[in-house]
Amino acid sequence: MNNSRLQQYHIAFVGGGNMAASIIGGLLESGQTASCISAADPMPDSLARLRDIGPIEVYKDNAEAVTHADVIIMAVKPQVMAEATESIADAVKKNSALVISIAAGITVEQIQSRLDPGAAIVRCMPNTPALLRSGASGLFANAQCSEQQRDFAQTILSAVGITCWVDTENELDAITALSGSGPAYFFLFMEAMITAGKEQGLEKEVATRLAVQTALGAARMALESDVDLAELRRRVTSPGGTTERAIQSFERDELQHTVARAMQAAAERAVEMAREMG
Fold first, then answer.
1. What pLDDT does 278 receive?
2. Minimal CB count within 10 Å: which of 14, 148, 157, 239?
3. What CA–CA distance (Å, rounded) separates 42 from 202?
């Protein structure tokens, strides 16, 4: 990724948790100048960890961190988003700063109500594999965002994985349910495979290594293959074989419906979180 267009701009982070640290690390690795990055967090341990990533400016006070910001990334929990947004309002108005929010469920309207009505806002739903630069982020921009600001947002989030734009904000609830919460689904499935392997006589270490490597291999095949997932599954499923018997068991237990219900529950919770902030 070439982020040379960002290097003359100041990027500020409000919140110094894992996701902020990941994005900062990705930006530095891709060539962003450390002196053009600042971050605020009330916890000394978080600030110390950010300093370990690179020589960025760190602050306890949000307003200080965003004083000269052209782009402000809101990397805080939804529960404190209202207070955090109000703390940056003056800087957003003064600098015409782009605001990127990675808080699940918090709408553009709710953010904008605490900022200037003309504020340019991008909502982003990243996921935890961003910590390994293997994330997947959905992005939505309000009408106030320029093409340059959209490009800035995509460049920043591309530092930690792939990005996908959506046309309507409601689609972010589905992205939250799919990729935002998705890593936990795969972890749960791997846990279930490991437990089943142990029950069939494998040592835990052996079952764990095989399950995790199998998941990695399957994901790489899905990414790198020129055929769709259904065809990949068919190629592994020999008629009358062991895989076919397992797939038939999943189908009897309505695995697809179980996944659909779980994702619907996640999407509904994202909507509830927005109501709770409102």
1. 61
2. 239
3. 46
- Distances, alpha carbon 74 to alpha carbons 19, 156, 180, 232, in Å: 10, 13, 16, 39
Cα–Cα distance measured from residue 224 to residue 111, given in angstroms and rounded to the nearest whole number: 39
CATH T-level topology, domain 4-169: Rossmann fold (3.40.50)
In the chain, ranges of CATH 3.40.50.720 domains: 4-169
Q: What is the structure's pLDDT at 245?
A: 97
Q: What's the confidence (pLDDT) of residue 277?
A: 67
The pLDDT value recorded for residue 8 is: 79
Distance CA 64, CA 169 (A): 30
Rounded to whole angstroms, the Cα distance separating 156 from 163 reads 10
* pLDDT score at 125: 94
Helices and strands (H and E) in the chain: how many: 12, 8
pLDDT recorded at residue 136: 96
Both structure tokens of 12? 């500020």
For CATH 1.10.3730.10, the residue range(s) in the chain are: 182-274
What's the confidence (pLDDT) of residue 5?
61
Where the chain has pLDDT below 50, the residues are 1-2
SS3 (DSSP) at 17: coil
Cβ-Cβ contacts under 8 Å for 128 (sequence gap 6 or more): 18, 19, 135, 183
pLDDT at 1: 42
Contacts of 168 (CB under 8 A, 6+ apart): 140
